[in-house]
Amino acid sequence: MAVAPRPEARQGTDPERVSGAPASGDDAHSSSLHRFVLLGVGAVVLVRLIVTALTPLELAADEAQYWRWAQTPDWGYFSKPPFIAWVIAASTSLFGDAEWAIRAPAALLHGGAAIAIYTLGQRAFDQRVGAWAAAVYLLMPGVAVSSAVMSTDAVLLPLWTLALLCLWRLRDRPGVAGGTTLGLVIGLAMLAKYAALYLLVGAILAAIVDRATRRALLSPAGAAAAAALLLTLTPNLLWNAANDFATVSHTTENANWGDAGFKPEHLLKFIGDQMAVFGPMSFGLLVAAFALRLKPPKTAEDSARLWLACFVLPPLLVIAGQAMISRAHANWAATAYPAASVLIASFVAQARWGATLKAGVALNLLACVFVVVVALAPALADRMGLENALKRTRGWSETATELAARARSVGATAILIDEREVWHEIDYYGRELDLPPHRLWRRHDEPRSFAEAHAPLVGNGSEDQLVLVVSHVPEYRPRMRADFQSFDSAGNIEIRLSPNRYRILKLYTASGFKPLARDAAYEARFKDQSED
């Protein structure tokens, strides 16, 4: 499918008004391309669903945590907004609690995002730009990985993309109904992940540089959008207020500003991470689009590209700055790439760089195939030296089974685990085993995670009669020992994860749980202590 340039707007055409009509005017070709896009997206989603059903890789700890949240749907949770739990609750209520049922919505939602991007590209430029933009998005390496796991990005990015489409439609045809829909979608995006705040930043920038957007947002339609957004967010805000703003606090702590400093070398890592997420050639085309085609609008296409840039630059610039002063995970700027997919497809169409875009999409397709191979045959990934990347998704069913046997053998009245990720894995993979109550040890006086808040050990003489302590963190062992009256070694659990890697959990039997106060003297006493 060739990438053809869209003709420049005729003299006298409002540069802030862009037609959604196909560039070719050929209805038969348009219909054929539309079917091709739908079939292509459907085929990719189907392959990803099959991989999700067949992969031997187990749930990561965060996936297990989201599953636990889904058992009691609420308006908020300790570290994330609630939408991901709602999605998992809907899926598992239909299909049960298997791993594939937890993960399947990710592939479906990303497929829906690709269709929304196709529609946005078609409306803002032409159908061929929309088709290529959908391909860029759906085949980008970050989306390939995100389609295989259930994460907050898997629910945020589709809602983000739908919000872009709703705002573009509102720009073209302001109306109270359209504004209400926009506010609802942005609200749901923020209930998926607070990174959706960048949508508001982008909308403000778009209103500054684009008269049509400004006119729409300053009309009754904009007021309807603001009201719908506030109404959608209010239950979550009330939940946070009732829970000491736990989610907001966790989001702030995750930025790790306590370790802030100027670390320019982190910028290079950030750029490398973004090339891995978006695809190396796609990221290069994005840089080229900004350098060569982003300019004051003289045509409808110029206006559309500038509008899209308003939703690309904020997350990229903010997270680049975050990386230089502290740290940044590769996916933190992922919200830049729905709009970026349309932006580079439109740039290539005008610059006649179709071969470059094809090569970039082909390279991303190879990355997608690699993700499929790793998911279906982890042993091949082991031979390529990727054991460490997969260790957190292997051996948990066996670990839970072995732990259940050890608990029965010692007659444990409770299991106490010292690490959040291990707790969530045992929580999920031990759900059908005969486990005593499994609890999470608190490192601090106040809870720092969902499990610490909802599954603390109770020293009331019932649970702490004979506790089977499961330790994964050597630095915590002296502290845990001091919290009990008796604390004796009970061997290890050793699970082989790959030819060269094992999971080793140290076991202890303990009783008489009387945790020490976590004050300054406590911190000084156990500073630098560890038990390997």
Structure description:
There is one protein chain. 62% of the residues lie in helices and 8% in strands. It is of the alpha/beta class and 532 residues long. It folds into two domains: 28-379, no CATH class; 395-526, no CATH class. α4 (99-124) crosses α16 (337-351).
Low-confidence stretches: 1-24
Broad shape? elongated
Helicity range of the residues?
Answer: 55-70%
Structural class: alpha/beta
User: What is the typical, i.e. mean, pLDDT?
Assistant: 91
The arrangement of helices and strands along the chain is HHHHHHHHHHHHHHHHHHHHEHEHEHEEH
Q: Looking across the biggest beta sheet, what order are the strands in?
A: 2-1-3-5-4
Q: How many domains in all?
A: 2
What percentage of amino acids are in beta strands? 5-15%
Please count the helical segments. 24
Instruction: Round the Cα radius of gyration to an integer and report it.
Output: 26 Å
Which SSEs are present, and which pair or pack?
Blueprint: H1 27-54, H2 61-70, H3 83-95, H4 99-124, H5 127-139, H6 141-146, H7 152-172, H8 176-192, H9 197-209, H10 211-217, H11 220-242, H12 246-254, H13 265-278, H14 280-292, H15 300-325, H16 337-351, H17 354-376, H18 378-383, H19 387-390, H20 396-410, E1 414-417, H21 420-429, E2 438-440, H22 450-454, E3 467-471, H23 477-482, E4 484-498, E5 501-513, H24 520-526
Parallel strand pairs: 1-2, 1-3
Antiparallel strand pairs: 3-5, 4-5
